Fold:
Amino acid sequence: MAYALKLAKSAGQAGEVPVAAIITDANGQIIAEAANAMHQLSCATAHAEMRVIEQAMQKTGLARLPAFDIWVTLEPCAMCAGAISHARLRRLYFGAYDPKGGAVEHGPCLFSQKTTHHQPEIIGGIQQTACADLLKQFFAEKR
Structure:
């Protein structure tokens, strides 16, 4: 998560909402990394999770990633949680909880729905304070 936080800080310095994600293999090696790039790419779907999943699939040549884990600095939204399910990622680790836009522990609780194709193991709250503080500082400076 420390590396994802570093990526998130860089995204925030570039004017993006400071959220980043990495995907690791079964040995814990990082195989893909991405940060939010919605403004840079003028694309509403350029969330860190969407970008890192696509990158990992391109790198591995796999359409599903059941032997890989995703680490995200913020609880994923509904779009990203859906992509995590479709990618069949093994585990989801995330930092800050997102009561407003999150869809894992909040809102639709996507992985708890019977119609969800795949439910990864979920570990939330990793370096929660550092991840939340980064977002709070970013938005405080915007106001």
The mean pLDDT is 97. DSSP finds five helices and five strands in the chain.
